[in-house]
Automatic annotation (TrEMBL):
Name of encoding gene: yusO_1
Source organism: Desulfosporosinus acididurans
Keywords noted in UniProt: DNA-binding, Transcription, Transcription regulation
Record-linked InterPro entries: HTH_MarR-typ, WH-like_DNA-bd_sf, WH_DNA-bd_sf
Entries under Gene3D superfamilies matching the protein: Winged helix-like DNA-binding domain superfamily/Winged helix DNA-binding domain
Protein name: Putative HTH-type transcriptional regulator YusO
GO molecular function: DNA binding; DNA-binding transcription factor activity
Residue ranges occupied by any HTH marR-type domain in the UniProt entry: 6-147
Length: 152
């Protein structure tokens, strides 16, 4: 396969990734939910960690602290998270799930499991294993390139 064909294949893959990711997110979200997939993943992170600082969030989601502020502000206004100050250092803001956030996450997870079960009934496990293998390989290559950027 020549370089032009390879480039075309990579561009097709990129387009397919975007289409699939958008459909996947839309499929998992339910109509009554006013949150994005990223916001739900953030709530899931808080459930797992218990408490996070804005720096933890920025690092986990690879976003700026400014983006974290607006992200946290929206979820706080919706009553899904609580912000408190650290007892040791009052400059440090601690973020955790509120009871309302826990309920929203529980509802989302319940719906997500139903939808994933439906999806799994329609997917061939062999194809899914091959897809996972290919995605793991892509992830490894991208991590390598990120650590050692290609230069011409």
């Amino acid at each position: 396969m020549d370089q032009d064909q390879n480039l075309k294949l990579v561009e097709e893959t990129e387009l397919l990734f975007r289409r699939v990711w958008k459909k996947y997110q839309n499929f998992l979200m339910f109509a009554s939910c006013e949150l994005s997939m990223q916001q739900m993943m953030f709530l899931k992170l808080l459930e797992q960690k218990g408490t996070c600082t804005p720096s933890d969030i920025a690092q986990q989601f690879e976003i700026t602290l400014g983006a974290v502020t607006s992200f946290v502000d929206r979820l706080h206004k919706l009553g899904l998270i609580m912000r408190t100050r650290s007892e040791e250092d009052r400059r440090v803001v601690l973020i955790q799930l509120s009871p309302q956030g826990e309920d929203a996450l529980l509802t989302f997870e319940r719906e997500r499991k139903k939808k994933l079960s439906c999806l799994m009934q329609r997917l061939d496990p062999l194809h899914l294993n091959k897809l996972n293998t290919a995605l793991e390989q892509l992830n490894s290559v991208l991590a390598e390139l990120e650590a050692n950027p290609f230069t011409e």
